[in-house]
Design a protein that fits this description.
By secondary structure, the protein is of the alpha+beta class. The chain has one domain (4-142): Trna Endonuclease, Chain: A, domain 1 (3-Layer(aba) Sandwich), CATH 3.40.1350. Helices cover 31% and strands 30% of the residues. It is built from three helices and five strands; from the N terminus they run ααβββαββ. It has helices at residues 4-18, 27-41, 92-108; strands at residues 45-52, 57-64, 69-78, 115-124, 134-142. The chain has a five-stranded mixed beta sheet with strand order 1-2-3-4-5, with helices on both faces. Strand 3, helix 3 (92-108) and strand 4 (115-124) form a beta-alpha-beta unit. The chain is globular, with a radius of gyration of 16 Å. The protein starts with a helix and ends in a 10-residue tail after the last strand.
Length: 152
């Protein structure tokens, strides 16, 4: 019934439809690619990756068309068996830098009146494996920090 060729065809389709994962990339890059693939499957439209300015970097920027919201996504990939959750590494300082970079992005694209939120995607990708073992998406994981608050 389910033959190996079926799974190869399915993986080819998923890669074509939602994005491929480059096995030669670093663990963090593969985690971002896996997160982008999962978010596309959930219906988000990825509009930018690794958007950077002098202050901070945003791993993924997406649009949630159902909620008419710009989504700024921080991806944390855990490659070892150390205890702890990858999302715990999005500390207050990282949230502040992502908030500043998001505000600068919205200002640059003339989108200051658009609703925005900050999500975190946690990826567990053990060393030596070709696929992640677990991916978790946290919507509205944190609020904007600093003096540059969002008003929408």
């Amino acid at each position: 019934m389910w033959t190996p060729s079926f799974f190869r065809c399915r993986e080819f389709y998923v890669g074509w439809r939602y994005g491929r994962i480059d096995q030669a990339a670093t663990t963090g890059e593969r985690g971002e690619q896996a997160a982008a693939r999962m978010l596309r499957q959930q219906g988000l439209v990825i509009i930018a990756q690794n958007e950077s300015d002098g202050i901070g970097e945003i791993d993924l920027i997406a649009v949630d068309r159902r909620k008419r919201t710009v989504v700024f996504i921080e991806v944390k990939t855990h490659s070892s068996v150390k205890p702890g959750h990858p999302a715990e590494r999005v500390d207050r300082n990282k949230q502040w830098r992502v908030t500043r970079a998001a505000m600068r992005y919205l200002r640059r694209k003339n989108l200051l009146g658009v609703a925005a939120r900050f999500d975190v995607v946690a990826v567990w990708w053990p060393s030596g494996q070709s696929t992640p073992t677990r991916i978790e998406h946290y919507e509205s994981a944190f609020e904007a920090l600093g003096t540059h608050q969002f008003y929408s």
